[in-house]
Amino acid sequence: MKYSQLFTRTSKTVPADADSVNAQLLTRGGFIHQEIAGVYTYLPLGLKVLRKIEQIIREEMEAVGGQEILMPAMTPKEVWQQTKRWDNFDALFRFKGMGEKEYALGATHEEIVTPLCRDYTFSYKDLPFAVFQIQNKFRNEPRAKSGLLRGREFGMKDLYSFHADEKGLDRYYEKVKKAYHRVFERVGFNPDLTYLTYASGGVFSPFSHEYQVVSEVGEDHIFTCEKCRVAVNREILKGNEKCPECGNKNLIEKRGIEIGNIFKLGTRFTDAFDFKYADEKGEKKPVIMGCYGIGPSRIMGTLVEVSHDEDGMIWPKSVTPFHVHLISLGTDKAVLDQTEKVYEELNKAGITVLFDDRDERAGVKFKDADLIGIPLRLVISGRTLEKKSAEWKERAEKKAKETPLKGLAEAAKAFYGEK
Amino acid sequence: MKYSQLFTRTSKTVPADADSVNAQLLTRGGFIHQEIAGVYTYLPLGLKVLRKIEQIIREEMEAVGGQEILMPAMTPKEVWQQTKRWDNFDALFRFKGMGEKEYALGATHEEIVTPLCRDYTFSYKDLPFAVFQIQNKFRNEPRAKSGLLRGREFGMKDLYSFHADEKGLDRYYEKVKKAYHRVFERVGFNPDLTYLTYASGGVFSPFSHEYQVVSEVGEDHIFTCEKCRVAVNREILKGNEKCPECGNKNLIEKRGIEIGNIFKLGTRFTDAFDFKYADEKGEKKPVIMGCYGIGPSRIMGTLVEVSHDEDGMIWPKSVTPFHVHLISLGTDKAVLDQTEKVYEELNKAGITVLFDDRDERAGVKFKDADLIGIPLRLVISGRTLEKKSAEWKERAEKKAKETPLKGLAEAAKAFYGEK
């Protein structure tokens, strides 16, 4: 895409109420636009990143047998009453329709997915199975903050699994644990800084699990065991700091950003909706349930928090809005023609390109490229053209090098790990 | 995908409150599940159809330069007050958050997109441009009905264009008209039954335009001019029935389902948000605006209304949930092994397959295949296996034929018009 066609602009000024690096950089770069505190529009660059994150999550959920569905945001009062959450789920946005009928905006979807799946499940032969969706959630947060980290409307992937017994849930839970690690590595988090973290549980299990990425700006306090590569959230420690897996007492305190969580729900919701199956003997038994969340928009915000420098964002290769940020310098026709040719060649090779074709000074173009944070910048100028080369600058590196124009598409593909 | 893995089931019974063929068949086939009147969950089969429809729309919107964004469903009261619609837009769902702050669920997004685009538009050089989103809308319909045709929460693609002058809007409007015809043809509507229809306009133009598909169950009355291939909605006729393009008075009355509409908004919204640009002389002028809607979920429901028979749905090739409905008959190991092999071969060739691997009678499997409506059914049984063939049955045809197992994937690809 040509930069001159993009309707958004970068901005030098930090929004007054942007209280976090991700809100500042994503807004300045033209990735998001705030509509209400904690409620954002995704602009073309931001939506490309979000969709790539969602697609990685989707692939990994399908790899563990998750079947994708899409539930509505509008949910009826009755289902929340049935689980006794209508009156005590503070974050529910409640509203009325015609005839004074009451609804809530989906803050989570156990109340919808449980009776839904009940309608299609009869005997043990129908179990286990898992469904997921990628959809917006709504929470009436007293104080939305930290850009995409804590929103009032935000993206969520929620997976729900249904089992005949606890053993089945336990097995599936372990599978999802591994799938989550794959998601976080694929979207670009450093596995050495990503911890499966023991957190407070529910009625069914002593613990739930969170995934925490180490970051100085993280809200959570975690204690890591470097032997087991797990952590414990401070909220469940009672002075007795030891690794729940190996008993190691030499835990290290860190700050973390939560990027996912998984729960064993047991029969908390299936009991409420009388969701039972017939076992081999025809006896009715309650279905056992698990739920597993990852927020794609929160992932996007967290990636910016852990991967930026003073000039802007540094996107991981897997979720970058474009593969190449292509720049032509000056108004020399030969340079413009050559850059146009490179643009076409890259596009033809399946390399997505943001081509800064504007009549702007080199400094302006370089500053914008650094802010937007595409991993690979290619510059063509009169000087490089003489040498039949382009300047090759990786966003994460300080120094640029020169690369022959011939074979540029192949080199860019190799940079992205493609043949 | 194997049918035995699919968590949904088909059903013989028609839902009590399903008042339309699309609601009945889509529910019975396991494509959608009603949560509230006019509010549905998309199940795996239904979501696949919806996503294909959305992708066709996306491609055609990008082909006319539309830049995809994603706006939130939560919108602040203030923007609706600014356009004087807070108090008189009956279909708005209004709700309150913390501190008694008021919001509306997006019933349309002019109130969000106009100030958003204003923030990035300064001079005539920034115009024209167009943005679109594919996102759910919410409308407090007094009576939701007709399945996916009139929902309270429903999918919408809304494109908005911004221009320096009326001529620019007129030119773009004509481009979008053509793009809409391409969308409707690609998703599977018969172009001979799809009419650009003159409908009531707004403040800016005497007419708006709808796209109507002829159907006996259509709510709208239209009068078609077969010379110009356009129609007029009854609502704008005042006894004087003639074609607005050629003056032809020989119009034919038909019933239609509206599947899209386009409006020239002029300065209705840009004035409200003081959205101006600087022209060549530096003078401030109001931006001229157009908007263009298509409901992907409504398209899905309409396709069922116009393409079904007494046994079930008949999906167009372009939006079918799977390419092939593969069936093995009997429990003979040789048949099961061969069908498994065909399943793998088709998958490898990029043909998506719903493989009915259940231990069910032929009659049950055939009935389900007819109900689900995948355009191509392939059956392998002891009888076909002897002849090294499969039964080839197209959903839209009455008769089956036999096709050699060898070259089956190529034949299926050719059926779908791929090399």
Spell out the key features of this protein.
homodimer; Rossmann fold; 11 helices; 2 domains; 419 residues
Description:
- The structure is a homodimer of 419-residue chains.
- By secondary structure, the first copy, chain A, is α+β, with helices and mostly antiparallel strands.
- Chain A has 2 domains: 3-309, Bira Bifunctional Protein, Domain 2 (BirA Bifunctional Protein, domain 2); 322-415, Anticodon-binding domain (Rossmann fold, 3-Layer(aba) Sandwich).
- In chain A, 29% of the residues lie in helices and 30% in strands.
- Chain A has helices spanning 21-28, 44-63, 77-82, 110-118, 166-187, 268-272, 296-306, 333-348, 362-372, 382-386, 408-415, and strands spanning 32-36, 39-42, 66-68, 74-76, 94-96, 102-105, 129-138, 153-163, 194-200, 207-214, 220-225, 230-233, 252-266, 276-278, 284-286, 288-294, 308-309, 312-313, 324-328, 353-356, 376-380, 389-394, 400-404.
- A 5-stranded mixed beta barrel of chain A has the order 9-10-13-11-12.
- The first copy, chain A, is elongated, with a radius of gyration of 25 Å.
- The model of chain A has no long low-confidence stretch (mean pLDDT 95).
- The interface between A and B is large, with 51 and 51 residues.
